[in-house]
Amino acid sequence: MLNANQREIQLHGINASSGICIGKAYLVGREGVDVVDKYFISQEHLKKEIKRFKKAVKKSKDELLSVIEQTPKKIRPHASILEIQMALFKDKRLYAKTIKTIEKELVNAEWAFKKVVSNVKAMFNNMTDSYLQGRAADIIHVSDSIMQNLVGAKTESIAAIDKRVILVATDLSPAETSQIQLEQVKGFVTDRGGKTSHTGIIARTLEIPAVLGLENATRVIKNDDIIIVDGTAGIVIVNPTDQTLIQFEERKDRYEAYKAGIARDSHLPAETTDGVFFQIMGNIELSEEVVSVIDYGGDGIGLYRTEFQYFNRPDFPSEHELFDKYKDVVEVMTPRPVTIRTLDISGDKAVSYASDSYETNPALGLRGIRYCLKKPDIFNTQLRAILRASAFGNVRVLFPMISCLDEVHHAKRMLNEAADSLDKEGVIFNDNIEVGIMIEVPSAAILADVMAKEVDFFSIGTNDLIQYTLAVDRGNAQVAHLYQPLHPAVIRMIKHIADVAGDHDVKISMCGEMSGDPVNMPILLGLGINRFSTNPQSIPTTKSIIRMLNVEDAELFINEVLKETTETGVMELVLSTYGSILFEIGYTE
Ligand code: PEP
Ligand code: MG
To answer: From atom 6 of ligand 1, which residue's Cα is the shortest distance away?
Structure first.
C-alpha cells in the first residue's frame, strides 16, 4: 500500500539482462566502509592493533574462500576472478603498507588501512601502474570486505537472504554475485556497471532481470520499497501505482508464458512463415559457455570473444593453452561453425599486463587488430593456435576493429605466415580456413565494397558500429539515451553493408547485441541479414520471432522505415506494424 506522500518514480539505466520482476527492494549496503574514526594507540598496544588487522584480513580471506567453494556450477566459469582477489589479500601495497603505517604513525588499524587504500585509489586515478589500473575494482571489493571485518560492521551475506527480493546495490562484487541463490533473488539493480560488467554477464547467465548503471538507485530506493525491474527496457519503477503494477504483472505473465514456450521449441530451425531459413548462432566469451549455446539451440558459434582468456592472469597465455581451449569448443560444436575472433583487447576490455602506456581515449586507441599488428609475437601465437584448432572442426577466423584495407592485408599476411610455419613443422590444419572481418568501424562499412574483395565473410558488430557512428560511448550511462540501434543513420549504414555483401557474394552475419533484441528483427530481415549471433540466452527468442515473421513483408516494410528521419519515428513504425507480435512476447504493454 502506498502512503500519501509516496509517488511513482521511474529510473532509466542500462538493460543488462532481459525480463521483468516485481518485488521488495533489498539494499546491499557498504556499512562501516566510508566513515572511519582516527585515534592514536600507545606503543604497548601496537602488537595488539597489528594482530587485529591481521585477524580482519584472515576473516575476509576465509569468507572469500568459502564463497569460492560454494559458487554454483552455472556461474563457476565466471568466478575465476575470485581467485585473483584471493591473491590481493597479501598484496604488499595493501597488507605490508598498512602494518607499516600502524607502526610508524601509531594510529588505529582502520585509519591506517583507509589511508593506504585511498593512496592506492589515487594511483588508479593517475593511472601510472597498469597492474593496479586493471585491478582497481578488485582492490575496492577486497578492501571493503577487510574494512567491514575491521570495524565489525554487519556484513550482509547475500547467501543468507531468506525472502524473495530484488537486490539494490552501488555495485555487486564478483564475490557477492557468486553467492546469489536463484530461489531468493528475483533481479538486480545497481548504480554502476553495464552490459559487459561482471554483474551484467552473471545476470544474463542466471537469466535474472537486471538494470545496471542507474547512478542513483541506492539513493532513491529504500529497503522494502516495491519496485518493478524491466530488464528488457532498462527501466526501474519505484513505488508503482496500482495501475502500473497491474500493467506490469500482465506483461510479466505474457513474457514468462512466451519464454516457457520458446524454450520447448528452441531446437527447431528458425524458418520464417514464407519458408526462409536463418542461421542463429551464439556469442561466447569462455569455452565453457559452448554447452549453453547447444542447450539453447544455437546453430554454431558466431562470435568467440577470445580476449576473456587473457583476463585475470599475470601474463599472456601460451599457444598451447589457447589451442586447448579452442579445440574444446570446436570439438563440441563440430560440424557446426565456430567463428574465432582474434584478440580484441583495450577499449572497454583492458588487460592490465598488456598495455605499455596510458591512453586518454582507449576506444579510439590501440585496440583490436591495431594492437595485434603492433605485437606480432602475441598475434602469431594466437593465429597458430586457431589454425591448429581448425583441424578439429569447422573453424572460421575473424579480425576485429578493421578500419582500413592495409590492416586486412597485414592480418592476412600474418595468418599465411603462421600457416607456413605450421606446414613446415608438419602440423595439420585447414589450409582453406574462412577469413572474415568485423564491420564495426564506419570507415570499414563505407569501404565495404573494397573489403569484400579480400574476405569470405562480414560480421557486423553493432555494439561498436553504433558507438562509433553516433559518437556515443557504449558504456556511459549519461549518454545511454543517445545510444540508438534504430537511429536512421545506423539503419542506413547496415543497409549499405548488407547491399554490398549481396552484390559481392560475401557471407554476412550480425553479432552485436542488436541481433538479440526482438524489436529490431523485422528491420534486420528487411535489410537482408540472414545470419545472427547473440548471447546464448537470446537464441530461443531470436529463433521464435523469426518464426513469426515473413521476409517478403519485411522487405516491403523496410522501404517505409527508410523514409523515417528519427529514431522515434522508426520505433513508432515498428510498434504500429509489428505491435501484436511484440505484445504477444511480453515486449510491449
Ligand atoms: C560489437 O562490437 O558489436 C561486438 C560484437 O564486439 P564487442 O562487443 O566484443 O566489442
Ligand atoms: Mg566490437
So the answer is: 461
Q: If you take atom 7 of ligand 1, which residue's CA is the nearest one? A: 463
CA of 305 to the centre of ligand 1 (A): 8
Residue 68: pLDDT band (50, 70, 90) is confident
- pLDDT tens, residue by residue, 509-563: 999 889 988 999 999 999 999 999 998 988 999 999 999 999 999 999 999 999 9
Distance CA 187, CA 208 (A): 5
How many angstroms is it from 36 CA to the middle of ligand 2? Answer: 42
User: Could you identify the atom of ligand 1 that is nearest to the CA of residue 305?
Assistant: 9
Q: Which residues line ligand 1 (CB under 6 A)?
A: 303, 305, 344, 440, 461-464, 511-512
pLDDT value of residue 374: 95
3-class secondary structure for 312-341? CCCCCCCHHHHHHHHHHHHHHHCCCEEEEE
Ligand 1 atom with the shortest distance to the CA of 307: 9
Output the CATH code of domain 271-584. 3.20.20.60
Q: So what's the architecture of 9-28+162-241 in CATH?
A: 3-Layer(bba) Sandwich (3.50)
Spell out a b/e string for 199-226, using b for 16 or more CB atoms within 10 Å of the CB, else e.
Answer: bbbbbbbbebbbbbbbbebbebbeeebb
Residues of the chain with CATH 3.20.20.60: 271-584
The CA 382 to ligand 1 mean position distance, Å, reads 19
Closest C-alpha to ligand 1, atom 4: 461
Residue 194 near residue 215 (C-beta atoms within 8 A): no
Q: Other C-beta atoms within 10 Å of 323: how many?
A: 20
- Atom 9 in ligand 1: residue holding the nearest Cα: 305
* CA distance to 52, 285, 325, 340, 532, per residue, from 306 (Å): 43, 6, 10, 7, 19
Residue of 364, 440, 467 best suited for mutating to test ligand 1, as the one with most atoms within 8 Å of CB? 440
CATH 1.10.274.10 positions along the chain are: 43-151
Residue 474 CA to ligand 1 center (angstroms) comes to 10
pLDDT of residue 135: 60
Using the atom order of ligand 1, give the atom closest to the CA of residue 514: 3
Q: Is CATH 3.30.200.20 the right assignment for the domain spanning 43-151?
A: no
Strands (E), 69-147: none
Peptide bond into 335 cis (omega under 30): yes
> In this structure, which amino acid lies at residue 477?
A
Catalytic residue ranges: 198, 511
Q: Specify the pTM.
A: 0.76
All CATH 3.50.30.10 domain ranges of the chain, comma separated, are 9-28+162-241
Q: Which residue among 285, 305, 364 is best mutated to probe the pocket of ligand 1, counting the most ligand atoms within 8 A of its Cβ? A: 305
Place of cell 566510508: 34
Tell the residue nearest (CA) to atom 1 of ligand 1.
461
Which atom of ligand 1 is closest in space to residue 347's alpha carbon?
A: 10
63-87 burial, b at 16+ Cβ within 10 Å, e below that, comes to bbeebbeebeeebebbbebbebbee
**Model confidence over 83-109: pLDDT tens digits?**
777 877 877 788 899 999 999 999 999
Direct distance between the N- and C-terminal alpha carbons of the chain, in angstroms, rounded to an integer: 23
pLDDT in tens, 160-214: 777 899 999 988 877 777 777 777 889 999 988 777 677 887 888 788 899 998 9
Q: Which of 371, 344, 376 is nearest to 359 (CA)?
A: 371
